[in-house]
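Researcher: I'd like a candidate sequence for this fold, 498 residues long. If you have to choose between options at a position, lean toward the conservative one.
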């Protein structure tokens, strides 16, 4: 049961706050939490278990206060694990030595998922499929690391080791990694970033000639490489959905698919490297075929960039998502790095442009820790303006389009307070949140329209609270409605209670 004083502050703040921009009720608001090289979490190697937990909780709380409703956490940076894996050793960025378990022992992935869900946030498990050794000179590599067990699967390129994507046994191995995590953990999505074939190093060819000769079947090498990546994406899509059909599969590619000078369907950009031609990732094919559920292109350039303009790219991606969800990746880490990113309006302007497109469902920010510094006051801007009202993650109708039945609500008056007692509908195990609305009038047609599109009249949306207490005076002042939200983020009809 919640104190009515809590709701008094929320109601006054929510109903009378005037926002400078419309705030959609459904919007993905995520942040990448990078573990490789201790970018975001843990802050350094060899922290104690309690320090690791405390840092993660502080990071989650900060992101929640900023307005985020999802985290994308890197749990496999380099064929290692931030969880007890039957295939790969513990990550060196967790304990300082690859293969060394946390002490006192705990399961970081289980802990991170539970803490995210406590806050009503989705947890997207971020894997790097092919990077195996971060630095061949300095990285800690355990005796049971896969590069030692199967050295024939790996290629050295620059200062790193990579799985050879052309080997069928590599694809099978990566599939086992994903299968294991999806089976054992309550994650909401599997997430890959932009690292498929590695970014080109000037003057050096990726050394996969042997596997190309063995498995190329006469295909041009570039087409064969793309086919290898296509194969792992479709294989993993089938694996994920066979185990848990509701777990999403998302990919965050480099921001440019192809330049227009290479392909008429490409963007009006002049990027030096692209997904299709250099990383061998044909994102559009995966979207067209429905192999992935969302795409989050990394549009880390500013508005007006000479080679890759943010506005040009956001317009291009908005017409190339093929019905799947599109979340825009923002490079807040670039704050202050050049004249454009010294402009305090750069991020707000990007969000203003983004929200004009009905085919774009939200944003993801790299990297999470940057919000701690509140560079350019962007954290404040999100918290006080753009993300002032909470938003639900947009539902994916190809996964689940069936809304739950509306709840029954009993109102009990006692003294200066009243309580809503919510009876959940049948199949209540699928309900994740109870949603409470307050309106200034009882025009249900207007309410349904507003409630469908905007979130500024949502007073409360939390888990595990079927009794909600407010002040009697507030009950009389506003008109109230309650709905329920299922795990697919489908919302029931509103149940009016006053």
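Model: Candidate sequence:
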């Amino acid at each position: 049961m919640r104190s009515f004083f809590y709701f008094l502050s929320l109601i006054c703040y929510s109903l009378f706050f005037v926002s400078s921009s419309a705030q959609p009720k459904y919007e993905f608001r995520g942040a990448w939490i990078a573990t490789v090289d201790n970018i975001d979490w843990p802050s350094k190697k060899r922290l104690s278990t309690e320090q690791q937990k405390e840092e993660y909780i502080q990071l989650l709380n900060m992101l929640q206060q900023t307005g985020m409703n999802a985290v994308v956490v890197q749990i496999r940076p380099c064929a290692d694990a931030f969880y007890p894996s039957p295939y790969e050793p513990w990550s060196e960025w967790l304990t300082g030595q690859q293969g060394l378990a946390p002490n006192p022992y705990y399961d970081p992935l289980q802990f991170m998922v539970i803490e995210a869900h406590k806050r009503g946030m989705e947890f997207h498990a971020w894997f790097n499929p092919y990077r195996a050794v971060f630095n061949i000179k300095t990285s800690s590599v355990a005796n049971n690391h896969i590069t030692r067990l199967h050295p024939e699967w790996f290629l050295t390129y620059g200062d790193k080791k990579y799985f050879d994507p052309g080997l069928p046994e590599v694809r099978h191995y990566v599939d086992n990694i994903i299968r294991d995590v999806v089976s054992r953990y309550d994650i909401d999505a599997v997430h890959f970033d932009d690292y498929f074939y590695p970014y080109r190093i000037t003057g050096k060819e990726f050394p996969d000639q042997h596997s190309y000769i063995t498995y190329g079947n006469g295909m041009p090498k570039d087409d064969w490489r793309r086919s290898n990546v296509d194969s792992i994406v479709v294989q993993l899509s089938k694996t994920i959905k066979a185990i848990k059909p509701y777990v999403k599969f998302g990919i965050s590619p480099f921001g440019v698919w192809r330049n227009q000078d290479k392909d008429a369907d490409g963007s009006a950009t002049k990027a030096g490297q692209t997904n299709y031609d250099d990383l061998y990732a044909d994102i559009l094919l995966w979207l067209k075929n429905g192999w992935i559920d969302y795409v989050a292109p990394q549009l880390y350039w500013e508005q007006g960039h000479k080679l890759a303009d943010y506005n040009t790219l956001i317009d291009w991606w908005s017409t190339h998502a093929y019905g799947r969800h599109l979340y825009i990746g923002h490079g807040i880490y670039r704050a202050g790095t050049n004249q454009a990113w010294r402009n305090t309006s750069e991020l707000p302007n990007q969000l203003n442009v983004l929200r004009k497109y009905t085919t774009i469902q939200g944003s993801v920010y790299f990297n999470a820790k940057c919000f701690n510094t509140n560079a350019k006051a962007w954290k404040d801007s999100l918290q006080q303006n753009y993300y002032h009202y909470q938003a639900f993650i947009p539902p994916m109708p190809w996964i689940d389009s069936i809304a739950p039945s509306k709840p029954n609500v009993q109102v009990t008056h006692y003294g200066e307070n009243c309580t809503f007692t919510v009876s959940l509908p049948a199949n209540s195990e699928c309900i994740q949140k109870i949603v409470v609305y307050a309106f200034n009038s009882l025009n249900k047609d207007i309410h349904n329209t507003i409630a469908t599109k905007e979130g500024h009249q949502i007073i409360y949306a939390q888990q595990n609270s079927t009794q909600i207490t407010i002040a009697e005076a507030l009950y009389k002042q506003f008109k109230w409605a309650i709905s329920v939200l299922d795990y697919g983020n489908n919302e029931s009809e509103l149940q009016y209670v006053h």
